[in-house]
Every structure is written in structure tokens, then in C-alpha cells.
Amino acid sequence: MKKWLIVSGFVVMSLFAQVAHADQISVAVKGMVCSFCAQGIKKTLLRKEGVESVEVDLDKKIVTITTRQGASMPDSEVKESIVDAGYEVLSIDRKGS
Amino acid sequence: MTVASAVANPVSFKGGYGVMPAYNKDWFDVQLNYSLTNRYAIGASSFYREGKGSTAEFGIAQFNYLMKRWNELDSQANVNASVGFGGRHDSVKDGAVAAYAALEADYETRRLYSQVSAETLQSEDAVQFNRYRGRLGVAPYKADFDELNAWIVMQVDVMPEMDDAVRVTPMVRFFYDNVVIEAGASLDEATPFVAGAAHF
């Protein structure tokens, strides 16, 4: 019984760890010179259900996307969103949290 | 980032709306657009013009096309085209057919902004209004995404059908978040110029 409880506990914790996972995605973007126009990037990404927040750094030309807990956003979806906003993706880097 | 009379590109981002009013002493424009993709936008525009001996109002259904965009690390350049059809209303004729076309090119960095455009409104009875515009702007400081952006812009309009055919207008241009506001006055008669844009 005790063993069963410990195993169950590990299973639940591991499931929770997967569900609670959030991504921080750094996207290098070409063409971001105007903050008014780049608002389109933020608006396009925030329409995605899995996106918690979007930060834009015009100096570094980086868009940082934080996903909601348990949500994921594949590279293809990131790229599609940036292109829909009128820009080009240079690279995508990911950091789990 | 501008097309013709508008102070911002009518093609914004997929699913985005844009509203762009512009006011001068003898003309007033307002455009509403919806971007179907990052290349195409449809919209409706209203143009009011007081020219040499004639005053006309145009209502135009408009199609806007981003023909080419160059996205570079520190700059962006665009070529835009717009066409439209609708009607004209004035004292001469109520319900005349009208057409609209515009071509625009721009180049900008975070400190420099330049734009040239040509726009024509044509309608029955040879009533027409043309405008050729050039703009050059500089930003006194490099603002980041969430800061107030300020620009000093010189605008030159050549409008053969208007009383003042050439108008040189220095102005200030601010944008913050999804809103642009421009205000200035022409050098010759201090004609006020106010324009704006919002994307949402």
C-alpha cells in the first residue's frame, strides 16, 4: 500500500510538472524599426490562446513570448504569427521554466 | 509606413483594423481598413475637397495592396498601392461615379523616415483631385517599443487642383502604443494640418 502511494505520488507529480511547464521563446525579428507598426506583432501573438505575454525589444530586435502554464507554441506557429504581422523571423530560441 | 493621404499603412497585420483621419483647411479624409492578410486590406474612405471653384465629397470602397516589403535588421521599406471605386457628391452632380488610385513608397529606420506618394481622385464631368506628396522625418531620440516616439517631419504637398497648389508643412509626429498623432501648419498661410491613425 505504501509503495503504491509513493508510486502514485510520483506519477501525479510528474504529470503536474508537465502541465505546469511554460516556455519563454526569444524570436529575432527583421524589420522592427517602428514601434507603432510592431504593435501588430504583439496583437497577433496575444490572440493565441497559449500566449501569456509578449515583450518587444527594438534595440535587440527580439520578441520574447511567454506561454501560459502547460501551453506550448511550436516554431511553425511562432513564425506564422510574426509573418502575419508583416515581419521576418531570423531565429527562435527556447527556454523552459 | 504611409499610403497617400493616410498617415499609416492601411495594410497592417492579419485581422487588424485601421482608422486614419486627416484634416486640412480645404480637405478632410477618413479611412477605415481591415487587413485580410499581411498583404491585402479592404476598406472604405471618405474624401472632402475644396478646390478651385468646386467642392466635392467622395465615398470610395478601397482595396489596398502591399506590393513589396523589405525587412532588414535596421530598416524597413515598402511599396503600397491602393485602388477604389465609389461616388462623388457635389453641387454639380449628386451621385457621379468616382475612382481612386494611389501609389506610395517609404523607407525608415529608427531615426529616419522618408516617403513619397501620388494619389488621384477621378470622377465624372472631369472633376478630379490629384496629390503628390513627399515627406522626410527625423527622430530626435531613439524610442523603445513602450515609449513615446517623437518625430519632426517636413511634408511637401503638390495639389494642382487646390487653391494653394504647393504646401510645405513642418509638423510633429508622435506615436505611442497603437496610436499616431500628427500636427503642423503650412509655412505660407499657417494652414493647420492634423492627422492620426490607430491600428487595433
CATH fold descriptor of chain B: Porin
Strand content of chain B: over 45%
Sequence of strands across the biggest β-sheet of chain A: 2-3-1-4
Residues in β-strands, percent of chain A: 25-35%
Please name the fourth-level CATH homologous superfamily of chain B.
monomeric porin ompg
Mean pLDDT across all amino acids of chain B? 91
Task: Give the CATH architecture of chain A.
Answer: 2-Layer Sandwich
Rg of chain B (CA only): 16 Å
Oligomer: heterodimer
Q: Rg of chain A to the nearest angstrom? A: 17 Å
Shape of chain A: elongated
- The strands making up the biggest β-sheet of chain B line up spatially as 1-2-3-4-5-6-7-8-9-10-11-12
Query: How does the overall form of chain B come out from the CA principal axes?
Result: globular
Q: Please report the two chains with the greatest interface, counting residues with C-beta closer than 8 angstroms to the partner's C-beta.
A: A-B, 25 and 38 residues
According to DSSP, the number of beta strands of chain A is 4
Q: Which regions of chain B are unreliable across 5 or more consecutive residues at pLDDT < 50?
A: none
- Might you state the CATH topology name of chain A? Alpha-Beta Plaits
**How many individual helices of chain A?**
3
Structural account:
The complex is a heterodimer of chains A (97) and B (200). Chain A is of the alpha+beta class. Chain A has a single domain (22-96), classed as Alpha-Beta Plaits. Chain A is 41% helix and 31% strand. Chain A contains three helices and four strands. Chain A has helices at 2-19, 35-46, 75-84, and strands at residues 23-30, 51-57, 62-67, 88-96. In chain A, strands 2-3-1-4 form a four-stranded antiparallel beta sheet, with helices on one face. Chain A is elongated. Chain B is mainly beta. In chain B, strands 1-2-3-4-5-6-7-8-9-10-11-12 form a twelve-stranded antiparallel β-barrel. Chain B is globular. Classes of the chains: A alpha+beta (97), B mainly beta (200). At the A-B interface, helix 2 of A face strand 4 of B.
